[in-house]
Amino acid sequence: MDEEVERLFLAHNKKVYRYIYWLVKNKETAEDLTQDTFYKAFRNLHKFQGQSSESTWLLKIARNVTYDHFRRKGLISFLKWDSKNDVDRSSLSPESSILRDEELAKLYEAFDHLKKDYRDVLILRKVNECSIKETAYILGWTEAKVKAKAARAFEALKQEYNRKDGFVNEPTK
C-alpha cells in the first residue's frame, strides 16, 4: 500500500497542485490543500473503482477539497491573485519582465472577472489539459455542456481581456 501511495503522489502531485493554485492563487494555501487532497485520496483509495483515470479522480477530490476550504473560510469568490507568484525572471530582460508582468496581471484580472463555471472549465481544459470527458466527470457535467461552456468561457475571457484596453466594442477574431 505504501508503494502505491508514493507512486500516486509522485505521478500526480504537480497536476493537483497546479489546479488548486489556479483556484486559490496562493502558494501556501495551494500546498496545504494539495496535501489535504492526497490525504483524502489515500484514505479512500480502496473506493477507487477505475471508472476514470487516477488523475481525473484526484482532480475531482481536489475540487471538492478546495471548495470545502472556500465554504469554511466564507469565501464566495476566488481570492485575489497573490503578487508573489512563482515566476522565473532570470532569463528575462528588465523590460521584458515588466511587460510580461503587465500582460499576466491583465490576464489574471480578466480571468478573475469570469463566472465561476467559466473559470473552472478553463482551468481544467487549458491549465491542467484535461480531456472533455475528464472535465465533464470532475465538474459533474455532460460533455456537451463542457464544450459549450468552454467556448463561451474563451469568448468571455477574450472580451474581458480586450475590455481592459478599451476595445470592448471591437469584434474579436
UniProtKB/TrEMBL annotation:
GO biological process terms on file: DNA-templated transcription initiation
**UniProt keyword list:** Sigma factor, Transcription, Transcription regulation
User: What InterPro entries does this protein map onto?
Assistant: RNA_pol_sigma-70-like, RNA_pol_sigma-70_dom, RNA_pol_sigma70_r2, RNA_pol_sigma70_r4_t2, RNA_pol_sigma_r2, RNA_pol_sigma_r3/r4-like, WH-like_DNA-bd_sf
Asked whether the UniProt record includes GTP-binding among its keywords, one would answer no
Domain RNA polymerase sigma-70 region residue range list: 8-74
Member of which family? Belongs to the sigma-70 factor family. ECF subfamily.
- Kindly give the NCBIfam families that the UniProt entry links to this protein: sigma70-ECF
PANTHER family associated with the record:
RNA POLYMERASE ECF-TYPE SIGMA FACTO (PTHR43133), RNA POLYMERASE SIGMA FACTOR SIGV (PTHR43133:SF60)
* Name listed for the protein in its UniProt record: RNA polymerase subunit sigma-70
Q: Which organism is it from?
A: Planococcus halotolerans
Provide the taxonomic classification.
Bacteria, Bacillati, Bacillota, Bacilli, Bacillales
